[in-house]
Amino acid sequence: GVKAFIFDLDGVIVDTAKYHYLAWKNLANQLGFEFTLEQNELFKGVSRRRCLEILLDIGNFTASTEQFERWLIEKNEDYLAYIEKMDSSEILPDVPKVLSYLKSKGIPLALGSASKNAKAILEKVSLLPYFDSLVDGNSVTKAKPNPEVFLIGASNLGVSPEDCAVFEDALAGIEAANNAEMVSIGIGDKKILSEADYNFNDFTEIDINFLDRLIS
Ligand code: B16
Ligand code: MG
Questions:
Q1: Any atom of ligand 1 within 6 Å of the Cβ of 8
Q2: Tens digits of per-residue pLDDT, 88-110?
Q3: Could you cite one Gene Ontology molecular function of this protein (predicted)?
Q4: Which end of the chain, N or C, is less surrounded by CB atoms within 10 Å?
Q5: Which ipTM was obtained for this model?
Q6: Model confidence, pTM
Q7: Is the CB of 72 under 6 A from ligand 1?
């Protein structure tokens, strides 16, 4: 059975995508072009650097290295102003139920996120104590669908990859979990996440029996 669980952050634990969107949109507007919610879909699970490259492509902008780095900082400062106002009311429904059930069973838990702000966000929503290991944008060199982020998580928890299950909302994340030979659990649109071993719209659909079957 499954001996450890790894959680993605944005789209699984909290909906920070809406704040990423506002910050990218602010930057786009400042540069004189529009950035839509639909375009923001392409940014989910994608690193900050890669997002800026895509954004500049959308606006037909080229930037010097220095300018690129300045925009990265600007976007993040803007994003962090939104994060600053977050509290536990922004945790997605029934996430604490699943975290505390797994904790009560003595199952080790890790975070596996592309975000460099992951720790600050978990602190803001008071979920940091649940996690035995945080693997985030500061600890990985290869982006999802590369399995690196989840493999480091398994190794930090002392569990072999085949004994881990991953909760993910992005296709690249499901692919990363599959590439790591972990059990993949898609949270969100089943049509998009059809490569997952299991699919749920959100954590309210995950019952204790499902978790018990996985861990037994
Ligand atoms: P940061 P996840 C990802 O989080 C977001 O989905 C993605 O939109 C964002 O660009 C990325 O984190 C990097 O975030 O700018 O905070 O380092 O889904 O991997 O938890
Ligand atoms: Mg995500």
A1: yes
A2: 999 999 999 999 999 999 999 99
A3: magnesium ion binding
A4: C
A5: 0.95
A6: 0.96
A7: no
